[in-house]
Amino acid sequence: MHTDQSIRTRKTLKVRVDPQNPLPVTKGDEFKRTIEQLIELAGQAPFHYTSPEKQRSEKLSGAEPWRFHAIDGFNCRELLEALKDERPMKSSDGIKQMLAAADALILGTWLPERNRRPGRKFHPNVKNMEHIAATGAAIQNLLLAATDRGLNAYWSSGGCLRKPKVLDFLGIPKHEILLGAIFIFPADIPESAHTKTGKNADQRGELEDFMDWVKID
Length: 217
Ligand SMILES: Cc1cc2nc3c(=O)[nH]c(=O)nc-3n(C[C@H](O)[C@H](O)[C@H](O)COP(=O)(O)O)c2cc1C
What we know:
The chain has 217 residues and is of the alpha+beta class. It contains seven helices and six strands. The protein starts with a helix and ends in a 7-residue tail after the last helix.
């Protein structure tokens, strides 16, 4: 697909099913390779500053400011099961319904400059801003690559998945900050599923609404 076409074709699709009746997991190792391809393409995004060395782990020692943690369909259903005892919150219902439908969930995180005290906090400095920007660019790469492969995807803030105890449960290191929980849904959506497009999709204006030429007098 041509880049322009991928950009225009990419659209959020949220797929939800009853958490009591999750979709069967049908995707195997081949699909896992596809997810790896998406993340490898995500990793081609530009980045200005390398990740702070002290924030790198032995396992994920990359210089890139982002990290991606992939959860396959089987483990999405396991996570759903683990969240069943969670105190209900507004954002958890949708997340559970999507975990019941997803073929995969990819958690995109970024590594902030080191704080005096450990934890998922960051200073609003330029370096951190650029780490976030680079990670956002990586996630957009991933979404475009998913579009090219005919996969449905949704970039969520994560809702209940942002809770420290959920991130700990998933083994996400404490200093990583979640930027996107990207749900990957089946291309063929079963009849039992509810679908919804992105809430801001119709807020998109025309070029002149967000661009001007700077004139120097
Ligand atoms: C960083 C980030 C976090 C987002 N988190 C949410 C979210 O938690 N819930 C939601 O409904 N939309 C969220 N969105 C917006 C949707 O992913 C989607 O992009 C938007 O509704 C526009 O639709 P489109 O992707 O079809 O253009 C988020 C977008 C970004 C960039």
